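Annotators were shown the component list below and the corresponding predicted structure, then asked to write short factual statements about the assembly.
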Amino acid sequence: MTSVEEPARSNGRTRDAARTQAEILDVATQEFARVGFAGARVDDIAARTSTTKRMIYYYFGGKEQLFTAVLERAYGVIREAEQELDVEHLDPVAAIRRLAELTFDHHEQHPDFIRLVSIENIHGAEHIAASEKLGKIGSPALDVIRRILASGQRSGLFTADVDAVDLHAMISSFCFFRVSNRHTFGALFGRDLVDPAQREHYRAMLGDMVIAYLTAPRAEA
Amino acid sequence: MTSVEEPARSNGRTRDAARTQAEILDVATQEFARVGFAGARVDDIAARTSTTKRMIYYYFGGKEQLFTAVLERAYGVIREAEQELDVEHLDPVAAIRRLAELTFDHHEQHPDFIRLVSIENIHGAEHIAASEKLGKIGSPALDVIRRILASGQRSGLFTADVDAVDLHAMISSFCFFRVSNRHTFGALFGRDLVDPAQREHYRAMLGDMVIAYLTAPRAEA
DNA sequence: ACTAATGTACGAACTGGTGAGTTAGTAATA
DNA sequence: TATTACTAACTCACCAGTTCGTACATTAGT
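Structure shown to annotators:
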């Protein structure tokens, strides 16, 4: 982010704090996602950088804070993407399906982010808790869901009694699991959930599931 | 799981290989689940045991193999539980709902197992791949799903064109996510997915979702 | 007596973090 | 313009504390 492209210096070694920080974050993101927080080595991260380990401590303070910074940037990317959601011109059913599909696509396109979130959950979300930035940023996607849901429920199209957060959990769980548990699931059941050939199948399955749930005829009560 | 109830041996230091191994596995399971593979310390695991670090290497060979052994036992517990599934006397709709509920309960009751699976996924399921035991054991639950599904599809009750593995993925994803992503989800959206007061709500939501998906009227095609 | 099981002590390699000094950019001043 | 003064950006070498693993001694059970 904010790469200060200095046009003059072609090859490299100009002094550029923003660039150095961004490079550290790039490498750290890969490393943390690859081997987890405890598994990552500050020395290795530094080695993959064009700068030194000292700079990591200079800019971020420590391994823990570096991980927090990585998380903050990763969540920032998500939020940016969510802000570009443009589905409210559709009817509620189509809008929800489209939203589910975009969530599906986004998870598929950002496996590193999903690994980071898995790792952060193993650590009890302590870095998120420790971060000011990540504390109270509501999800734009949640607002969108809220409005679509209200519209669909008002018109009687949606019969399910869910709120936006729960629906978001439902959609996310499928998208997240498909990527996060790809390896164990594949090893145990012999099916690659992220097989490109099955992509459309699972994308449709998610949409069908969500719409079926929202529009199912409620017999009783 | 396979707790160390040795009835005969009164207090302590009798020589009992099986018991020592089981104790090591108990502690190792907790530690690995708590802080991940790289985060776990062999010395700490040993310290929480009534035996010594030497025994870990004596019986398991090393940290990596210990983790594999922990995984093997954890999956064994799951398989045992799945073998006690008894839902096929119900009609397909009720059977699937019941199966989903049991899966839901099981995930909730074994958060350590879920953490281990998350961790194993971060490591690309390499330990499962390296294990002979975990290689080719089909899931009993999968067989049950397969039969219920076939029955429901034959009778026309189930309109969805899913197979057992995909349905298992769908059910698991919700159950798994609810526990595995509890912390980040709670931190970001302010809702505890594992709040006991919401338990029935989410349990019903899962059942409704799966049944709605399976029985949804397929308009087109 | 013999062996499986167990405990103690130790070390080589690693790991996060830091101390201390250097270089590049920049703006004020002469 | 040249000089000086200042600071952000950076490098290198090292430390203090861990961490996995093992050599060796010892004990319990048969």
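Statements collected:
1. Chain A touches chain B through 55 residues (CB under 8 Å).
2. Chain A has one domain: 17-215.
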